[in-house]
Design goal:
Layout: H1 3-8, E1 24-27, E2 31-34, E3 39-44, E4 49-56, E5 59-63, E6 66-67, E7 74-79, E8 83-88, E9 97-105, E10 109-127, E11 131-134, E12 139-148, E13 152-159, E14 162-167, E15 171-174, E16 183-190, E17 195-210, E18 216-218, E19 224-233, E20 237-242, E21 245-247, E22 254-259, E23 262-267, E24 276-284, E25 287-297, H2 303-334, H3 352-365
Parallel strand pairs: 1-10, 2-10, 11-17, 18-25
Antiparallel strand pairs: 3-8, 4-5, 4-9, 5-6, 7-8, 9-10, 10-12, 12-15, 13-14, 13-16, 16-17, 17-19, 19-23, 20-21, 20-24, 22-23, 24-25
Helix pairs in contact: 2-3
Amino acid sequence: MSLRLLFLLPAGLPVRSQGESQSDNKQMDNITIRQGETLFLSCSQGDFVTHTAWLNRSSILYAGEDKWSVDPRVSLVTLNQDEFTIKIEDVDLTDEGQYICAVQTSSRPRTTSVHIIVQVPPKIVNLSKDLVVNEGSNVTLMCLANGKPEPAITWRMLSPSDDSLSSDSEVLEIPFISRYRAGVYECTASNDIAVDTQTVELTVNYPPSVSDGRDVGVTLGQRGVLQCEADAVPEADFEWYRDDRRIFNGFDGIEIENSGALSKLTFFNVSEADYGNYTCVAINKLGSANTSIILYEIIEPTSSTLLQVETASVLEMTSSDLKQTAFENNDLLEGPGAVQDGNSGTSTVFTPTCLLLIVLLQLLLKF
């Protein structure tokens, strides 16, 4: 029998060599290899080998030293009386299948077969794009992946982290989405070989909500700042009003500064006309919100005002001292050392403290 005819026979069928003995067929254990690695295929030769070859299914890769395969990844490693080894570099899924080493001896043919299993790490091939939706919408995120073994797919909310929002399937459903579900979502595809992850950013639009305004008190002629803060996606635009009249930046020496979620209305020199009620309005494409802020006057105390306050305090203290002195005088009149008026029979006591308080009171009343 020729070598060519021997190779074309299916593995496992009885073959006669020059009418003599039956062929030996050996099945090796499966070999598992990862995609991208290098595969070595080896079989023993033995004595009196006349022909030898490696086959992939029905295609001849090598016949002795002659390469039949046109695949540049396939090459001969060793060929001698004891061993016949070839290698396949950068193994791919198409290389999976049965390989046969056929050896023709002087007496009979011998075949050794092995099944190659190629494992492929997971790769996400179809993922939802970044989404921008309005609050209240129903959202569906999809993630598809290839791999061998078939990868398992999971979804989770990555940032901000929320373990309650997850899925163990290719699809993540989020009904009636709220602003608190906005963030980064992660799809993970995993099998026994490796893990692949990709992310989707989900933006949720919602109308503005404005924090309650804080009234501001400012002294006449000083600098005053009204602040307005709004939460909105997309970010809100701000407008300021005095009564029904809109205020623009630079109007009457007023500056409007907007920075993200915060707007400031600044008066550099507050006048009497500036005091009053102001309205801040935050607007985006989904709606608006407003708040009112009052700019009121703080009156600084003058020197005359301070003197009046001090006089009132002293008078209060003087009144208290006089009462105390009267009680002391009464005790003196009733005591054994009291001086009696001969005509009226009353007692009179003059003390330096009493005289001093009377003089001080007169001086204070002149202011």
